[in-house]
Amino acid sequence: MFEAYWRANGDSCTTVILGWEQMSYFASRKHFLWFVEQELENEIRQLHSLVGNAVTDGRFIVVGTGSTQLFQAALYAVSPRDGAQPASVVSAVPYYSSYPVLTDYLKSGIHKWAGDAANFHPADSSSSSSSYIELVTSPNNPDGSMKHAVVQGSGPVIYDLAYYWPHYTPITAAAEHDMMLFTVSKCTGHAGSRIGWAIVKDAQVAQNMAKFIELNTIGVSHDSQLRAAQILKSISGRLFHFGYSEMSRRWDLLQQAVKVSDRFSLPEFSPAFCAFFGQVTSPHPAFAWLQCNRDSDCKEVLKLGGVLSRSGVQFGVGPDYVRISMLDREGNFETFIARLSDMAAASLAST
Ligand code: PMP
Q: Does ligand 1 come within 6 angstroms of the Cβ of 140?
């Protein structure tokens, strides 16, 4: 979706790296975040102060190979080290489908996926030494809702704020959680650069995350960090105005397509005052979280109509839900809307 913006405004992002530049593993030999490029860190702090979506003062910026790597680094950083039970990793349904897989794919001894945070009660845990880590995605992937921690306990909470940008949701306050994850993927659309960042309050947690990144990839591509810095530097308010009006147009089309019949439904969102735009704005999530009201296997129904989606089952709920991206290229988005309209109208004809 952002490609059109960068085609028109991307000239100032050209990054030139000569053959002899950026050859070292190190950006700095003095700091424990030795792989973080200062230029990128500065741009990240400036961007948050422009947008007002997160507090960075007095906090560490840990750069990672996408927020996917930082998510794993964060789990590693706050999991117990005493060899007792692995920490239970929980997130309220519907949760981002990658969390269970990323948590368990190495069958770690320090953490394990434990499902829906709403059903998790720390006191019920079989061992008194067992602990938990809660994941909160806000706005949420897949359903776009604003989320808060739900577990009644004092365990660490990792806030994945990938979508907390003015094009997706009103910026109501600067977030100031202990651990917050962001990514250029959803902010500017440059998912291929694989750059994300964590804003971390506690020095030991930041240091543990840096250790994970050292062990996992010996730092983060310096070429990518410089390109990301250049891209962030060129962001003026204009990117968010473009993103907001584009998302607004796309959501209008989606809502029109869905409302011709009662076959599908979408979540409802309330407008709020956005401190960045200085006016009331409506949420426009990056995904359509569509419910099939009459068919039990929504993914299959959409597939028959020529639309690929991800089943609600992968997000911890039923197969009557699916998630569809709202950020595809314009042509694909138009095809999606045309096919969805046909499916909604076909249901009308059959009733
Ligand atoms: N967190 C959430 C909630 C996401 O939706 C995504 C991308 N789908 C990611 C993290 C991954 O972002 P990145 O490209 O930075 O690894």
A: no
